[in-house]
Amino acid sequence: MNNNKESNVSNDINYNICGFKSGLEELGISLSDKQMKQFIVYYELLIEWNSFMNLTAITDFDQVIKKHFLDSLSLVKAYDLSKGIKVIDIGTGAGFPGIPLKIAFPHLEVTLLDSLNKRVKFLNEVKERLAITNLETLHGRAEDFAKPEKFREKYDLCVSRAVANLSTLSELCLPYVKIGGRFISYKSEKIKEESIAAKKAIGILGGEVEKQVEFTFSDEELYRNLFVIKKIKSTPKKYPRKAGLPGKEPL
Ligand code: SAM
Question: 0.90 exceeded by the pTM?
């Protein structure tokens, strides 16, 4: 992997981080050596734990950099992350996009939520090994955590990638967002029909479509459509409905 270009070393392995650096440059993000090292340790933990549990189908270093790390960070194209806001990542899986965002923007107060306990155990290990503070992990269904006062309408920003269609996701995510806050869904090209189908749900749940931000990295390998919904009024108490229903019967 090392071809004498700029590299970073962890556990005696050299990683070529040139692709990562140029991707970061395109996003206008600069990382310290400590943050770069955190990303590499995160990569190594991902590969190690992936050997005995299902975390990701992507394992090649350059591909993980692009399709997980840089993709997660592409959020900066749609939202200003310079302030110390509260962020929740719904259905975070192995930590995407929440962990890359927390590493690159350590002042964020991040909560990672997933219904699969073994993935939450992995996230706790990452948190400990990277010595990350102000990072909360929650094991359970998004439908259930959205009910208690402690979590309801408490976040400036809710993000989610590869979890459900936009109608279902709006019911899972908008209850967490403060009025005036945003829910941003990481989507692909095929958003048009999905967004039309979700229009009613977004309105019922107190949201309003604000914008869509499309972004392609210069090598054209990665395209992202960030769908931004603004919370304009409180979500009615009956939402989200009981666990499973938002997926089975989208609003
Ligand atoms: N966001 C990550 C990513 O982009 O790599 C993981 C995507 S994975 C396809 C979907 C994740 O959402 C799984 O880890 C699953 O356990 C979680 N999930 C699905 N429905 C959920 C729900 N209702 N509440 C909490 N987590 C959920």
Answer: yes
Q: What DSSP designation does 132 have? A: -
54 contact partners, CB below 8 Å, separation of at least 6: none
Query: What DSSP line would sit under 41-73, residue for residue?
Result: HHHHHHHHHHTTS---S--SHHHHIIIIIIHHH
- Ligand 1 centroid–CA 46 distance in Å is 16
Using a 6 Å CB cutoff, which residues line ligand 1? 91-93, 96, 113-116, 119, 141-143, 161-163, 172
The rounded Å distance from CA 114 to ligand 1 centre is 6
> How far apart (Å, rounded) are the C-alpha atoms in residues 59 and 40?
13
- Indicate the range of 110-114, 144-148, 186-190 predicted with least confidence: 186-190
Distance CA 99, CA 105 (A): 10
Q: How many CB atoms lie within 10 A of CB 148?
A: 9
pLDDT in tens, 51-70: 999 999 999 999 999 999 99
Backbone angles phi, psi at 176, to 5 degrees: -80, -15
